[in-house]
Predict the structure.
Amino acid sequence: MHDLVEEFEITFNQIHQHLKELNGFPKNDNFVELLQHSKLKHSVVRVHFDQLKQYAKLRNAIVHERISGDYYIATPHEDVVHHLKSIKKTLEQPPEALTFATRPVLFFKTDTNLLHIMEAFGQHGISQFPIYDETRCFSGLLTNDGIVRFLAQRADNGDISLLHAEASDVLACEKHANVQFLSTTASVFDLEERFETSLNENKKLKAVILTETGQPDELPMGIVTTWDLIKVDRRDQDIS
């Protein structure tokens, strides 16, 4: 029984340390407070939030309400210790962001004919495509909304021919899209942090593009939108 209590305490303290790290080591490092803050940003914590709150109560009972010596008012079940270790392992080794990205990424060049891109919209059911210039540097996101604006502008000018229209022409009509880049080795925590930060800054993040080292002059190996983040929660729920 003493071994179980010791394992529980050690594992709980390690999780506490991870929560501090996730929150930038704030002055108020109360476990439940850190849990509340982390829940808003990270799916792993969100999924296990209620269980971790209960484990915090058990930990307090073990530490602060010990009757004498090795006699505890409450002791953890073996399954509880096993589950706590599982949560700790996920916090230590979170899945890579690439796990939740759309792959492979279909992208086009700035001089790609618009009719070809519109055909791809219909075939793949995708609402946006990354566009790259001749140096393979990211130029912007071409979206179905951007195409509608482009067509409306052409119609106003009395020119509805698309024979010679290119991706670059539509990009000129696109609203500025907030797109960020991460390396393919980034964790799901890094990914969620980007979306959370943009939300706090009131700058909607349209997509995160994953490249080999996280630079915009590298070809995309994965793309993540807010819709893809739903897969993060679902995966963690399945694991739990």
